[in-house]
Amino acid sequence: MVAVLIASMVVGTEEGHADYLRADRAWLYIVVLTVGYMISRGLAKSGSREPYDS
Predict the structure, then answer these.
(1) Structural domains in the chain (count)
(2) What global pTM score does this model have?
(3) Where are the alpha helices (DSSP H) in the chain?
């Protein structure tokens, strides 16, 4: 997520070039990465055999 935020800050409009990674698109990528991470963690925990309660 940090890399996406840094990339969105670094990419800018210089010499008439278009901004390829706007802030709204960067936040969309962060949301997609977060949801993907939550799903992968849920799948990993659902496959464990050891109970978490004492």
Answers:
(1) 1
(2) 0.62
(3) 2-10, 23-46
Closest residue by Cα to residue 4 from 23, 41, 37, 35: 23
7 within some domain = no
Give domain status of residue 2, yes or no.
no
Question: How far is it, in rounded angstroms, from Cα 25 to Cα 11?
Answer: 12
Instruction: Find the domain containing 36 and state its range.
Output: 20-45
**Per-residue pLDDT tens over the stretch 6-46:** 887 777 656 666 667 777 788 888 999 999 999 999 888 88
Please report whether residue 53 resides in a domain: no
